[in-house]
Amino acid sequence: MSVLKQIVASTRESVAERRDAVPLSTLEGQLSARGEDRPFAEALARPGLSVIAEFKRRSPSAGEIRAGATVADVVDAYQRGGAAALSVLTEEANFGGSLEDLVAARSAAELPILRKDFIVDQYQLVESAVAGADAILLIAAALEPDHLAALYTDANALDLDVLVEVHNEDELEGVLSTVDPDLIGINNRDLSDFSVDVERTHDLLADIPAGKTVVSESGLYSREQLDELERVGVDAVLIGERLMRSEDPRVALEELTGGH
After folding, report:
1. Nearest partner of 40 among 171, 153, 132, judged by Cα
2. Strand 213-217 relative to strand 113-116, pairing
3. Exactly one of 187, 188, 216, 241 is catalytic; which is it?
4. Cβ(102)–Cβ(88) under 8 Å?
5. Which burial class, exposed, middle or buried, applies to 54 when counting CB atoms under 10 A from its CB (0-12, 13-18, 19+)?
6. Phi and psi angles of residue 229, each rounded to the nearest 5 degrees, phi first
7. Given 91, 127, 171, 217, which residue is catalytic?
8. How far apart are CA 121 and CA 12, in angstroms?
9. The pTM is what?
10. Are strands 85-89 and 50-55 parallel, antiparallel or unpaired?
């Protein structure tokens, strides 16, 4: 079984346990307490290359990334460093995250927040909205097309922006024919084996229709990479490990973006 399939299976089990503890109807009753809207898609549409800076505790491929890191300190550094938006990785079993990290990020910064997780159930969409997410990630490799489309529709009904992630031509074609999203993420990491190839973004970019906001994800470490991605028409990048491992995330972000 691939790493992705293992994560999806464990996610389904975790969602079932959370639903038993807090029924969907109870969770939906908390939606009225949501805070102010922070448009995620709009934040990525500003001129120049936008950075989605990610808080991530660990990963199956990298292990623990920043021991003792507090959400508040890191996301405050990201905000001061010029990030356009935040990503908070909330998957627990493999990445050490939690919805509490997202709630903490919401309190510590004013930027829009993407819940980065393996979304497979409507329950997670309501969780995301209640916790303060402004957007969610849907991974084409983890979902059947009809299921992805249903989750996409349900997310929009909750006023959540949706970043739909692909990593090959077949996934991109399927996504464009089913939901035609405004936000398309190209993951340079293959989630079946966690190998990384930044050329995936360059290879798929030509197949994305004009007018879409394109986000390149994973394997981005240098100003030169970002300059080249901006040159070929990428709108935003999602960077986590490079910033989380730096001595000062604010300085690291400013170095990558040129302070803009």
Report:
1. 132
2. unpaired
3. 187
4. yes
5. buried
6. -65, -40
7. 217
8. 8
9. 0.95
10. parallel
> Six-digit token pair at 90?
């909330």
Domain locations along the chain: 3-22+39-257
| Active-site choice (50, 128, 218, 241) | 218
Position 234 pLDDT exceeds 50: yes
Structure tokens at 6: 């293992």
Please tell me which residue in 91, 116, 127, 216 is annotated as part of the active site: 116
Q: pLDDT tens-digit profile of 60-98?
A: 777 888 888 899 999 999 999 999 999 999 999 999 999
Q: Is 187 a catalytic residue?
A: yes
Active site residue 218: yes
| Structure tokens that stand for 207 in this block | 């197949």
116 flagged as catalytic = yes
Given 91, 165, 171, 241, the catalytic residue: 165
Which of 113, 92, 87 lies closest to 17, judged by CA?
A: 92
CATH superfamily membership of 3-22+39-257: Aldolase class I (3.20.20.70)
Residue-wise pLDDT tens digits, 45-64:
888 999 999 999 988 777 88
Percentages (nearest 5) of helix, strand, coil residues in the chain:
45, 20, 35
The reply to whether 165 belongs to the active site is yes
56 is catalytic: yes
pLDDT surpasses 70 at 1 = no
